[in-house]
Design goal:
By secondary structure, this protein is an alpha+beta fold. 24% of the residues lie in helices and 56% in strands. It starts with 7 loop residues before the first helix and ends with a strand. 23% of the residues are buried. This is Nuclear transport factor 2 family protein. It holds the Pfam family DUF4440. InterPro entries: DUF4440, NTF2-like_dom_sf.
């Protein structure tokens, strides 16, 4: 779920990306990200696309829920970004996980599509 006053097309991109992640379908996830997509986490630092898709494809990482309240966004030419607070649940190596974090997704227009090229996660401090 995206709740925000950001441009509607960015909210739609975020909804599509979240739905792909919760589907745990590598093909759907790959359809939302660039070939050079990078996930930056506090635990592992920069994680390349291939590693995340492998972990999801193997079932070692699953997502059961993913929400985000977007608070900041911008579009500049063929680039856009969305920052907000998100929560997700799932499993990692069979153990339950949950996260409450600030998330920034950076999008790039590729032809007629907008694809995420960078996701940066920062744990939220309660």
């Amino acid at each position: 779920m995206i709740t925000t006053q950001i441009p509607p097309f960015l909210a739609e991109l975020e909804e599509r990306f979240n739905a792909a992640m919760v589907s745990n379908d590598v093909g759907r996830i790959a359809g939302c990200i660039t070939d050079d997509w990078l996930l930056v986490t506090p635990e592992a630092g920069p994680v390349p696309r291939a590693r995340i898709l492998d972990v999801v494809g193997s079932g070692r990482l699953t997502h059961a829920s993913m929400t985000k309240v977007a608070t900041h966004a911008a579009v500049v030419g063929d680039m856009a970004w969305v920052t907000g607070r998100g929560q997700n649940t799932g499993t990692f190596n069979g153990a339950p996980i949950q996260a409450d974090e600030y998330i920034t997704d950076v999008y790039r227009r590729v032809g007629d599509c907008w694809l995420c090229m960078l996701t940066h996660l920062t744990p939220a401090q309660s």
